[in-house]
Amino acid sequence: MPVIKVHDKSFDIYLPEESIQQRIKEMAALINADYAGKKPLFIAILNGSFMFAADLFKHLTIDAEISFIKLASYKGMKSTGNVVTSIGLEVDIFGREVIILEDIVDTGKTLHHFLPKLTHQQPLSLKIATLLHKSEATVFPLNPDYVGFDIPNKFVVGYGLDYDGLGRNLKEIYQVI
Ligand code: IMP
Ligand code: MG
Hints:
This protein is an alpha/beta fold. The protein has one domain (about 15-150): Rossmann fold, CATH 3.40.50. The protein is about 20% helix and about 40% strand. The chain has 3 helices and 10 strands. It has helices at about 15-35, 50-60, 110-120, and strands spanning about 5, 10-15, 40-45, 65-75, 80-85, 95-105, 125-135, 145-150, 155, 175. The strands form 2 sheets. A 6-stranded mixed beta sheet has the order 5-4-3-6-7-8, sandwiched between helices. The chain has a 4-stranded antiparallel beta sheet with strand order 1-2-10-9. Helix 1 packs across helix 2. The structure holds inosinic acid and magnesium ion. Magnesium ion binds near residues 45 and 103.
């Protein structure tokens, strides 16, 4: 199914399932090597990152913990500019090696707002792993440490990413036409 419809928009296939899964294995291998002998705490940002977090986590061979928080700034196809936290962080990150898991870094606004709240709690280290990075869309500069795919500044859905609530269940990633 190369072209699909979600709500009122048409989308074309952009990243097939095999490419996503292959890249996630490579990202996990890098993290396994970088954190050998350590016990990092992964913080996955809901909703969008749930599939990426689950698949990446399965390929980790190091001791690792995971926790989830819910942040949102998007409505429809645009960032609202406001970042809302609706489920907070329940674990203590003081002295921990922390890795944030994001589905996509777009303008950088979400993490720009959230990172100071984490650094304030004095983790030992703090890194960002994102499946997708729209580096052309940067407004708040961030340097994600692990990037799956650098993609053009076009709206995408699938593999956890939604367009107004729909499209998250797709195994592939689709780009708006
Ligand atoms: P940022 O705050 O602008 O970096 O945007 C980050 C959040 O916006 C992501 O975690 C996604 O939830 C959402 N987002 C950004 N771009 C897209 C997209 O192309 N499709 C679906 N959601 C997106
Ligand atoms: Mg998100």
